[in-house]
Automatic annotation (TrEMBL), chains A, B:
InterPro entries: Homeodomain-like_sf (IPR009057), HTH-type_TetR-like_transc_reg (IPR050109), HTH_TetR (IPR001647), Tet_transcr_reg_TetR-rel_C_sf (IPR036271). PANTHER family: HTH-TYPE TRANSCRIPTIONAL REGULATOR PKSA, HTH-TYPE TRANSCRIPTIONAL REGULATOR RUTR. Keywords: DNA-binding. The keyword Ion transport does not apply. Residues 14-74 form the HTH tetR-type domain. Residues 37-56 bind DNA. It comes from Spongiibacter pelagi. This is TetR/AcrR family transcriptional regulator. The keyword Transferase does not apply. One of its GO terms (molecular function) is DNA-binding transcription factor activity.
Length: 197, 197
């Protein structure tokens, strides 16, 4: 009986943790990381501030977890877009397009993930995930170079450059609402030309 | 007499402030912003910690000032390189090359300015100065589009993409020591191709 109660308690805690995290992601999606306060979260999930801290040790840890969770979803979408095509140019285009389209669909979240001034702990995660994005593009570029579809280049360099180009160039358009289609098409062209596709 | 003494005091304070700032920049150049502690600074300039705080209200303000001061020097070098050429492609190439060459010459400083996880206040300044870099490239690209030297594109978009590409793609090579010439040439090619030059 004691054992089953413990399991139940753990399950409940895990559910509660997921609920807090979901609520935290919504706060960031709407108002960026600056809107993610323990107080706002406590109000949202009907908990005391002290109780929230029992689930997430501190604000930094919570921010990092929200950042990771949201970014992994974006990364997965880009990975699937890239892997869904066999042609090198189409793969690159799909990756760029999905990244940009998703950013326009959730502009505040995209800005928060890409560039909002935040705690250094989130900055650390940004560096990590930018490398993860770069590896997706690197694989395609390396294949293109190996097969002669793309000109000689350092695939890791071009890939990182594409990730930087995507992140930086979307900030203005996200803030000023586009023009979405022109921006996305422009970015696709920029990236394809850049690698010689 | 009182007036002249005040002037002298002000001069002395201003000199002292410059000395602290110079020392702070050296700390960042050698070990990044994480090496910039008020204690290290106090040791360097032979002052008490409390005295340092009389010149710079807090650590954030000091970090931001060091960031700005260093970045403005870099920005000026890139601006001069771009303005030193009349041909569009040569202008863009000079800007990219000077940015990258200077980064390789002071790799820790470059990493600290571009990407080291830091206080949000420095992140704010990063956004500001990235836009300043972008405006330099935007001007050249817009001229190229207007004269028909470059294909139609949104100059602000391509310019921001170049700045993002430069910043992101240099991080790996700066950390792993190159290969400098190959990386710089690769970046120049990436950026020129990207804008259709």
């Amino acid at each position: 009986m004691a054992y089953r109660e413990t399991t139940k308690v753990l399950e409940k805690k895990s559910q509660m943790r997921s609920e807090i995290l979901r609520s935290a992601e919504t706060l960031v999606r709407v108002g960026g990381f600056k809107a993610l306060t323990i107080q706002a979260l406590a109000n949202d999930v009907n908990m005391s501030v002290g109780n929230i801290y029992r689930y997430f040790g501190n604000k930094d840890a919570l921010s990092v977890e929200v950042f990771r969770h949201s970014t992994e979803r974006e990364l997965l979408a880009v990975a699937q877009a890239i892997q869904g095509k066999t042609d090198i140019s189409q793969s690159l285009e799909a990756g760029v397009r999905v990244f940009a389209e998703r950013a326009f669909r959730a502009p505040v979240l995209a800005w928060a993930l890409i560039a909002e001034p935040v705690e250094p702990a989130v900055d650390e995660s940004r560096l990590f995930y930018r490398e993860a994005y770069a590896r997706l593009f690197e694989k395609v570029i390396a294949e293109g170079v190996a097969s002669g579809t793309l000109p000689q280049q350092i695939p890791a360099l071009s890939a990182a450059a594409i990730v930087g180009a995507l992140a930086e160039s979307l900030l203005g358009p996200l803030e000023h609402n586009g023009p979405e289609q022109e921006v996305i098409d422009g970015l696709v062209l920029f990236c394809l030309r850049a690698v010689g596709a």
